[in-house]
Specification:
- By secondary structure, the chain is mainly alpha-helical.
- The protein has two domains: 326 residues, no CATH class; 211 residues, Methane Monooxygenase Hydroxylase, Chain G, domain 1, CATH 1.20.58.220.
- Helix content is 77%, strand content 0%.
- The chain is built from 22 helices and no strands.
- α19 packs antiparallel against α22.
- The protein is elongated, with a radius of gyration of 29 Å.
- It starts with a helix and ends with a helix.
């Protein structure tokens, strides 16, 4: 009975942690908006500032796990790219070494989880406001607090090995097997960190064991290396509820630490010799022969490992990103985190070149709204499948938010371009893009509106017959054609006058089919062959599709106006 209770407590702690992670990520998406993204982008503009950001944050909150979890949530919310996240995670590994030094020098560590309950109280205060933004702030704060509370319960719901280190005294006999003993204790450090859910706890336990003479310096160093592998499990747990980019960010943390452990093991004796020289050079005693400086030597191992590993791998960040992308392959429809593809790197050297980047991003924008309509079609055909429809509705809502944010980012970029010197042609192209991104954002709104119409239909217990679904699908076929023509025109229309007859024909076909369906529907109503409420939702869908055709032709007409 006690064992079952302990297992349920452990699962509950894990659930609390995951819920806190999810709540914080959702709160970030709602409240952070473009301002926080700009701040984070400024803080992570280059490799040095990324590492520095991760180091400082972790040094302040005393938890690399917390930092990496936050970074994973930022990636999940689309506030950081995978490349930026890798640099910050590298810095977090350096920042966590501060804890081992505090243990060595002061004998205790800070526990940020003690602030969780006050943070929940603060979040609750924000939740009481009528403002949706303040409610979202409260949601984010409560999620942040629950995340740390969950981490605390995870540590407390497993056997308290840290409080009873004598339970591990039997491992002394494993220290006399040469390099094989080193590998064993790397594994021991990894497993202990996974169990305790805290790299700091494992380091503290290692320091206690070393100070009591149970293990020599080289074995303690091996446990520290294992701790660096085990600490990655927290970010991977957090990423398990995130999107594909969040999973890749967590895996990048694992790749970084595992690679570091491999090269240190390959140079193990020279590495420890260097640590000993550093300790002796700073006025300490040789940790191989004296226990007086053993704690400082172990802390030096931790620090030197992470600093050196970062200095080596920071130059290979693109390769790490490619590796984790190759390992964690995602379907096209999983790549749904907000990301600018062409203008995220900042302004080009001239306004005209920057305009080229913006045009490419506009084309990318049109491809995103086209992808949304694939989900809209699925929602129409899966409307009677409650679970599947709910999933598709969330995707449509997510894409509507993405289109809002992309419109803002491109508009902000165009505003910056406008401050430079542009030719008359460039000015015309820029003005056209302002209009185009507004139309594309409206298409994104219509995609979500289709989901909302279907949701209301379901709430009122209405169902379309096979004939109605077939006709809506044909209308969506016409919309797809219009969107394809729009995108094709965007790819070639900024530089010269183009023939937009393809888009005009597509829009004409949509209007004509809309008129035919409207007349047919009126006949059915007069003949009482169709339910009124079901007919309302049916025609709402048809009208929304027709609106998309209007937005699409407006985009092509804006291209003609460039010249």
């Amino acid at each position: 009975m006690n064992a079952a209770f302990q297992i349920l407590t452990l699962l509950g702690a894990l659930g609390l942690f995951l819920y806190g992670m999810t709540l914080m990520s959702e709160g970030l998406q709602k409240v952070a908006g473009n301002r926080l993204r700009s701040i984070l982008s400024a803080m992570t503009a280059n490799s040095f500032t990324r590492v520095l950001t991760g180091t400082l944050i972790t040094a302040i909150i005393q938890s690399s796990s917390a930092t990496t979890v936050m970074i994973v949530s930022f990636v999940n919310a689309g506030l950081l790219s995978l490349t930026q996240a890798v640099g910050v995670i590298m810095g977090a590994n350096i920042g966590t070494t501060v804890t081992s030094w505090l243990i060595s020098l002061l004998g205790f560590t800070a526990d940020i989880s003690m602030l969780s309950i006050p943070l929940v109280g603060l979040g609750f205060v924000f939740m009481m406001f009528k403002s949706q933004k303040r409610k979202s702030i409260g949601e984010m704060i409560i999620g942040f607090a629950l995340l740390f509370l969950g981490l605390t319960y995870l540590k407390n719901s497993v056997p308290d090995l840290g409080a009873n280190p004598e339970a591990l005294a039997f491992i002394q006999r494993w220290t006399d097997w040469g390099f094989f003993s080193i590998l064993i204790f790397v594994l021991v450090g990894t497993v202990l960190t996974i169990i305790l859910q805290s790299s700091s706890a494992t380091v503290a336990l290692t320091l206690v064991m070393a100070s009591q003479g149970w293990i020599p310096f080289e074995i303690a160093a091996a446990m520290v290396l294992g701790e660096n592998i085990g600490t990655t499990i927290t970010a991977n747990i957090a990423a398990s509820v995130g999107n594909i980019s969040a999973k890749r960010a967590a895996l990048a943390h694992t790749v970084f630490n595992v690679f570091g452990v491999i090269w240190v093991l390959a140079l193990y004796k020279p590495f420890l010799w260097l640590v000993a020289k550093i300790v002796v050079g700073l006025g300490g005693e040789d940790p191989f022969t004296s226990s007086a400086s053993l704690l400082y030597a172990i802390s030096t191992v931790h620090t030197l490992f992470n600093i050196t590993n970062t200095c080596i791998l920071i130059w290979f960040t693109p390769q790490i990103v490619k590796l984790v992308t190759w390992i964690i392959k995602g379907r096209r429809d999983e790549e749904e985190v907000f990301r600018l593809r062409y203008i995220q790197g900042g302004m080009m050297s001239t306004a005209e070149l920057s305009l080229e980047q913006a045009e490419q991003e506009v084309v990318h924008f049109s491809e995103i709204v086209k992808r949304q309509y694939a989900y809209a079609r699925q929602a129409v055909n899966e409307a009677d499948n409650e679970n599947r429809f709910d999933e598709l509705f969330k995707k449509l809502e997510h894409y509507e938010q993405i289109t809002d944010r992309i419109e803002f980012e491109i508009a902000k970029y165009l505003s910056n371009i406008g401050e430079g010197e542009l030719s008359q042609d460039g000015t015309n192209r820029m003005h056209a893009m302002y209009k185009i991104i507004s139309e594309l954002e409206s298409i994104g709104d219509s995609g979500f509106n289709i989901g909302r119409i279907l949701q209301r239909k379901n709430l009122h217990g209405q169902k379309f017959d096979e004939s109605a679904v077939k006709k809506i699908n044909h209308m969506l076929d016409l919309v797809d054609t219009a969107l394809d023509c729009m995108t094709a025109n965007l790819r070639s229309g900024f530089q010269r006058i183009i023939n937009i007859s393809n888009a005009q024909d597509a829009e004409h076909d949509i209007n004509e089919y809309r008129d035919n369906l409207k007349e047919e529907h009126l006949r059915h109503i007069e003949a009482e062959e169709s339910g009124y409420l079901r007919g309302v939702y049916y025609m709402d869908l048809v009208s929304e599709c027709e609106r998309v055709g209007d937005f699409a032709i407006n985009v092509s007409e804006a291209l003609v106006e460039v010249n």
